[in-house]
Amino acid sequence: MSETTERWSSKRAFILAVTGAAVGLGNIWRFPYMTGENGGSAFLMLYVLFVLLLGLPVMAAEIMIGRAGRRTPLAALAYLAGKAGASPHWRWLGLFGGITVFFILSFYSVVSGWSIEYLVGTFNGDLADRTPAEIGAAFNDFLADPYRMIFNHTLFLLMTMSVVATGISSGLEKLNNLLMPLLYVLLIILVGYAATTDGFGMAMRWLFTPNLAAINAHVVLNAMGHAFFTLAVGAGALMAYGAYMPEHQSLPRAVIAVAALDIAVALLSGIAIFSVVFAHGMDPTEGPGLMFVTLPVAFSDLPGGMIWLGIFFLLLLFATWTSSINLAEPMVAMLSGTGIKRSTAALLVGIGVWSAGLLPALSFSTLATIHPVGNMNFFDLVTTIPTDIFLPLGGLLIAIFATWIMDRDTAFGALGARESHCMLWLNLVRFVSIPLLIIVLLSGLFA
């Protein structure tokens, strides 16, 4: 397959696109509840550390492969392996990434559909003046309603694939350029509101006062895994984006900017959420239900709470929309690389993801009694195996390919940095990131 001729129109467009891929459920839904469950500042400190030692270097490796190959992930790996005299079987890593992102998007669409339901429920008054028991019961009723679950899953996926079908410049780039700045504006507005609540000072102390006593092996492993998950590394999506990277852009500077923006979203989300939670005197360790059960209750007792809750769920919808679009792109790009029209490829991917998403969508209703593995239902399987096993395995293989298999001159040329910086990256990935990835993978396999 020949090189792709598509490019992001500017360095800013590339950074916003990669940030759009990284920022999503991991930052706004997963980060707050994991921070709550893992000691607040202890988890935050470790999370930032592992973004720097693990997420950022492997992100650079994945984008670099795409930039060096200038093809779809599968074709780029085949081309670069051949150039290095390595086994052509490395190309199947691109297919593995496609399978990984396929399953991630199938549950991502389902959970993102929840934000649509809650956004509507906020503005039509369904979430106002409810007790914690009523909010919890309403959430469980929603999960158990197959028609509402499928409707929201379908609507969100239509929103996603309709943008991907239009292409890089007219679809992905325009939406990223519009929604990513708007996302940060909404976040800053929410944090400004949070600063007026009684819980703001407590939230700041809980998040930023060092709490070394809370650090243990469990917290370290969780922080390590989340730092990797939140940057969308290991599934080939960033490899696809690297193929469209502008010629003269510094890759290290770009990934540092993306990591900083990604961490900023997590921090701002945490400040906004925990300020409201503490202002209401609620427990921050509520787990995955923190956003969909705890927050509606907390906001309902605050002045103008439903308006602010609506803004929060609008923010969540924007973040998951940009992220899912960027997750779908590598699959559509791979199909388009076989000669299929982009619009047809987007339709085929959309139908496949929608069909697979029915399993997690119906896991709380029609399929609630089915547990394929142990006590895990389909939702548990699809949300656990791709993120805890497939992503770190894909990231590990990408890191190995980038630093041990690829021709060094080709790799350094694609990084676009001074040789001393390239050597720092090479050694960091080889001797720090790869061992950490092995630990993340083993913890996922034997958890």
- Give the end-to-end Cα distance, rounded to a whole number of Å: 41 Å
CATH class label: Mainly Alpha
Order of helices and strands: HHHHHHHHHHHHHHHHHH
Helix content: over 70%
* Content of β-strand: under 5%
> Which fold name corresponds to the CATH topology?
Amino acid/polyamine transporter I
On the 0-100 scale, what is the average pLDDT? 90
CATH architecture: Up-down Bundle
**CA-based shape:** globular
Taking the sheet with the most strands, its summary is: none
Count of runs of 4 or more consecutive helical residues: 18
Radius of gyration: 21 Å
Could you explain the architecture of this structure?
The chain is an all-alpha fold. The protein has one domain (11-446): Amino acid/polyamine transporter I. Helix content is 75%, strand content 0%. It contains 18 helices and no strands.
Any descriptors?
447 residues; mainly alpha; Amino acid/polyamine transporter I; 0% strand
Give a quick precis of the structure.
The chain has 447 residues and is mainly alpha-helical.
Secondary structure topology:
Blueprint: H1 11-22, H2 25-37, H3 41-69, H4 73-83, H5 92-123, H6 132-143, H7 146-164, H8 168-194, H9 200-208, H10 217-230, H11 237-242, H12 251-279, H13 294-300, H14 305-336, H15 342-361, H16 378-405, H17 408-415, H18 419-446
Helix pairs in contact: 1-8, 1-12, 1-14, 2-10, 2-12, 3-4, 3-9, 3-10, 3-12, 3-16, 3-17, 3-18, 4-5, 5-7, 5-14, 5-15, 5-16, 7-14, 7-15, 8-12, 8-14, 9-12, 12-13, 13-14, 14-15, 16-18
